[in-house]
Amino acid sequence: MLELSHVGKSYGEKIVLQDRSACFSQGIYAVTGPSGAGKTTLLRIIAGLETYTGTVTGAGRISYLFQEPRLFPWYTAQENVALVSDRDTAHATLTAVGLEKESPAYPHALSGGMQRRVALARALAAPFDTLLLDEPLAGLDEKTAKSVLALIWEKAQKKTVLFVTHDPVLAETMDGRFAL
């Protein structure tokens, strides 16, 4: 179980998070709030990428989908995903996000939405206890977003997932909500 206890973060005099506590068990939790509320900062704290006050425990193995793809340009789509898994898992996950034919392509040859799906495939292919998804559906068309969402639900069984979204309708479909 992922637990946040009195978590706080400020950048200089700007307080981004103040005394936030929560417990997340297995399930998919929407992390919501207006722009600048600290959603990305919260994920970065859980991932150990930011200093903060308070405590974060129980995250286990973390896989993280950042807002931007962060793909290695010298690796193909398949190789980018295989960095966190084996070749068979990488191939299967790229196929699941609709990119089987693009697996030998380098990031520069892919559209922004395709790069996003490669990054998502990498996050889903990694072994994880906690999955951090920072706006995973951004830049995807409706049909692709629905298939990606179904894949997230499938891979997230018996895991803890924090899913940053600005979509209130989507947030209502999740197991819980953490509003900032």
How would you describe this structure to a colleague?
This protein has 180 residues and is of the alpha/beta class. 32% of the residues lie in helices and 28% in strands. The protein is globular and about 45 Å long. It starts with a strand and ends with a strand. The model has no long low-confidence stretch (mean pLDDT 96).
- Beta-strand content: 25-35%
Lateral strand order in the biggest sheet:
5-6-7-3-8
* Percentage of residues in helical conformation: 25-40%
Mean pLDDT: 96
Total beta strand runs: 8
Q: In sequence order, what are the helices and strands, one letter per element?
A: EEEHEEHHHEHEHE
Number of helices: 6
- Rg over alpha carbons: 16 Å
Let me know the largest β-sheet: 5 strands, parallel
Question: Which blocks of ≥5 consecutive residues have pLDDT under 50?
Answer: none
Structural class: alpha/beta
Keywords:
single chain; 32% helix; three-stranded antiparallel sheet; alpha/beta; 180 residues; 6 helices
Summarize the entry for a quick read:
The protein has 6 helices and 8 strands. With 180 residues, it is an alpha/beta fold.
